[in-house]
Design brief:
Layout lengths: L1 E8 L9 E5 L8 E9 L4 H20 L7 H25 L7 E2 L1 E7 L2 E7 L3 E6 L2 E4 L6 H8 L4 H5 L20 E6 L5 E5 L1 H4 L4 H10 L4 H11 L6 E8 L1
Antiparallel strand pairs: 1-11, 2-3, 3-4, 3-5, 5-6, 6-9, 7-8, 7-10, 10-11
Helix pairs in contact: 1-2, 6-7
Amino acid sequence: MTKAYAKSDIGKARDINQDSYYITEDQFSELQLYMLADGMGGYNAGEVASSLAISCCRSYIENNFNDIPKDKESIIQLIGSSIEYANMIVYEKSKENPEYEGMGTTIEICLIYNNKAYIAHVGDSRIYRIRKDFIRQLTEDHSYVETLVQEGTITKEEAKYHPKKNVITRALGCNAFVEPDVMVKGFLKEDIIVICSDGLTNMVSNQEIFDITTNNFEIAPKELIDLANNNGGVDNITVITIKNL
């Protein structure tokens, strides 16, 4: 059985919250679905992109889940296809209205089934897994600075303060096609998954995420958001915590 908690906050510097999220409220449902999107674009456009992406992915997955075999490849394909579908809808929407031009969003999908986490990811929001005494980032940021880190041009420490650290290299809705990263990870009893927007990770360290979440995963979203705001709160902040009980 999984239990999840979530919270989203505008932060201290923004006029609007462009983050969106969805969590399955029924902890006994066969389909345990958790999603987070961090929108970008002109005033309001990012909010439109993120909420539309969440609703499209959710409807696609919910409408098709019962009709697929429940093997690894089929579930991975389902969540990947949901992002491709949402990308098409958001991209088309961006063409309808000049105010929406160039809008896009990150997207994180985590579908829990049979003690496994099926993950699809685009952008620089993140999914972590905490197991025993270790926190591990499962997703890889689609960002300019992450590319520099992978190339060995800069260190992870330098990436934290790089002037272009908010430049992302892949987003949902900005182009006609998008390729999500998809993966499946074990989600064992007592494991905790944390899904968050970069409004958290730019303000709070991995160690702090680990300490606060392992202390009490139920109130961790609020406590992590409070900490991010105390540290500056320069962006919208959204946190989802999920525990395998």
